[in-house]
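Annex B. Sample input.
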Amino acid sequence: MKTDVVIIGCGSTGKTTAAWFTLRGVSVTLCDTERFSPDMDDIRHRGGILLRGRAGVTGKALPARMTTDFQEALAASNRILVCVPDYRHEEIARLCAPYFRSDHCALIVPGNLGSLVFRRALKEAGCDASPCLAEMSDNLWACRTTGDNEVLAALPLPKKRVAALPASATFRVVEAFENILPLTPGTNIVETTLNSPNVLTHLAGTVPNASAVEKSGGQFAFFRDGLSPAVIRCIAAVETERNAVLASLGLERYGGSAALCESLLRGDVPDGFDLFLTLDGPGDLKHRYVTEDAACGMALLVSLAELCGLKTPVSRALLTLASCFNGEDYLKNGRTLSNMGLGELSVSELMAALA
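Annex B, continued. Sample output.
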């Protein structure tokens, strides 16, 4: 059975995307590992995934196919969306490796240099195919699981930036998804990773709020409870450091987060952002706002600044404190240039390697 797209990942992003596509008449294969089989059985039992919020469509949607068989899933379409957290990238790459074809286009959502992880894992697994590996700058949705097979998308879907590895294949990604998903090309995977708003807000918003997060009993919602003038100054400082790195690399800046946070703090909430303010997280200091965004975006930002000869005192301090909180050296073990196999390159060599 062929479908229009394969979605790998049965978490909130995968379920939201599967429901959104299905409600729009796009046929979906939803795939994940065996431990998600009970979730799939429950979706079938309940007659679908209930999508609420501001995604443009709402309602209950049952994907055309749900499976834990990766061979079956990858045979269904040449368009694949990988919607899993960064710590699952290598696991998913190895599960896909025997079944990838060279006509496959795998778009990792969000990217966080996941294409480099996939490329290395596929090579180690002896994958003979050469699928197109690409990354989205940020997540498809600001979304949460709000009940049994019930998901909330707080904002509509804008056109998303993507880049392939190598960047010369980015046109292929945009073309592959053009009739089902609005995409626009970025320069390369470093540019798309650094332009994720999570790089700017998550660590800079969580670390100054550490006490409040720990005392919240899991009820903390950053954009409702965590904004203050001092926190926004911290976000703005990270944004300034990020912008300097992008400029030094000759890469584009898509936007920022400090101005939006200032508006939200004033109570000047843009149309449609009311649900966004209610999104929970981080509930504790092991939340992905810390673990994922320290190990991925912030670690990369600091390592790129070192390459460019730039100082990033605020970003480095946030990374150091996050490491202290969780007993994990995010700069040593995160997705830095060195750990991604790019540590010996100059700026020009790095840009050429990603082109």
